[in-house]
Design goal:
Elements: H1 2-32, H2 35-96, H3 98-126, H4 129-150, H5 164-192
Helix pairs in contact: 1-2, 2-3
């Protein structure tokens, strides 16, 4: 189509040259006093101008068609991109197992959390304050050991208490703080549970 457009442009230039030449011929004939040949040259010029107008209309139609084809090609590329994107999304959804699989996983996760809460509540109700304190002391000792393992270059040693009484007081203070914290947690748990009539 672009070749046809270029050919039409060349044809327009050729017609323009011809009309200019016919005008010159008409002027020469009038200068010689040959009115009939001048009139014939002007008629040929008029005919060429009508061809030029038709060529302009054809050129405009051709350019509109070229634009439409180019736009259709862009639309085709967009459509192809949408198809590829849709295929990738479908593949991802297939790999995820669909909505049912996701809902099942969420449900299983909630069930596992509820089960863990039940176990924690049962263990908390079964253990005495002294047992709870021992468990928390053991947890702190394990945390200190893991910190020592993860930071081997750090040479920090715990400082020994100055007196045995000071160590006992510090330990008692921690136990009392833990007991208060447990009592607060139990009160919150009981407040969160629905009242049975």
């Amino acid at each position: 189509m672009k070749n046809q457009r270029d050919k039409l442009h060349q044809y327009q230039k050729r017609i323009t040259v011809i009309t200019d030449r016919e005008t010159e011929i008409a002027k020469e004939c009038l200068a010689r006093g040959d009115r009939s040949k001048a009139l014939l040259a002007l008629r040929r010029k008029k005919f060429q101008e009508s061809l030029l107008a038709k060529t302009d209309a054809q050129l405009e139609t051709l350019e509109q068609l070229t634009s439409s084809v180019e736009f259709a090609l862009v639309q085709k590329d967009v459509l192809y991109g949408l198809q590829q994107g849709t295929a990738v999304l479908k593949q991802i959804h297939t790999e995820m197992g669909g909505i049912e699989h996701v809902e099942k996983l969420i449900g299983e996760n909630e069930d596992a959390r509820a089960y863990q809460r039940e176990i924690s509540e049962m263990l908390a109700g079964q253990m005495s304050n002294q047992d709870e304190d021992e468990v928390e002391d053991e947890l702190e000792a394990l945390e200190r050991q893991t910190q020592a393992v993860t930071l081997p270059d750090a040479l920090s040693y715990p400082t020994a208490p100055d007196t045995a009484l000071e160590a006992k007081t510090d330990s008692d203070t921690r136990r009392k703080a833990r007991a208060r914290e447990r009592a607060k947690e139990q009160a919150q748990t009981q407040a969160a549970e629905p009242m049975l009539a």
